[in-house]
# Entry
Amino acid sequence: MKKNTLKRQLIQTQDGSKTLLINDLNESYHSIHGALQEANHVFIKNGLNLINDYEINILELGFGTGLNVLVTFDEYLRNDKNHMIKYFGVEKYPIIFEEVSELSYSELFPNQIVKDLSLKIHETEWEKLVELDVNFHLKKIKDDFFNIKNMDLPPMDLVYFDCFGARVQPDLWEKEIFEIVADKMKTGGLLTTYSSKGSMRRALIELGFEVEKKQGPPGKREMLIAWKK
# Structure
C-alpha cells in the first residue's frame, strides 16, 4: 500500500520526531503521538529487549522510513554489541531519498555511528546482506509481504509487525499473513506490533501463539506481543 504514486507529506509528531503521511489515505508511517517513542516502546522495550539469545534474526514487515532499524542498531550499541543481529526488512514501495533526508533521523540519536547510518541504510543495495557493523547485518527485500512464504530466510527470533493499519490494509491483519509469518519463525520466537486488533489476536491464538496484551505506546492504550509455541 505504500505506493510511490501516492502523495506523502512530511509531518512532525508530538515527540519532535518526523514521519510521513499519505494524504489520500490519511495514514501515517508512525504514530502522530511520537514516531521515535512508538518505535522504542513497541519494537525495543516489547521486542528486542525480551530476547535473550546472542544470535538474533529479525524480520520487519514494513521497512518504510528505516526508523526501526535505527532504534535497533542504537540499542545494539547501548548493550556493547553483545548480540549478533541479522535484520531483514521487507518493503514493496520504498520511500525516495529526498524523503529520507527530510526526515532528519540523524538528529534523533546522539551516537555518531547511528547518525551516519540514518542515510546509509537507504543507500545500501537491495536483496544483499550488508554489514553495518561486525555483528549487525541488514538485508532489504523489495517484495510483497505475502511473498515472504517463498523467501529463503533463516528462522526468525523476532518479528516487527509494522504494516499500515487495518483500516487501509485489512488483508495484512488476518490469519493468512500471520500463518506465513509464523512459518518463518523459530519455536519460542516473538512477534511484536503496535496493534491490539481483536481479529489479529484470535488468529494468532488459533495458530498456537501465546498472546499478551501490553501497555501501548503514547496515544494508544494497548498493544500485543505473541510468542510462537
The two ends are 31 Å apart (CA to CA).
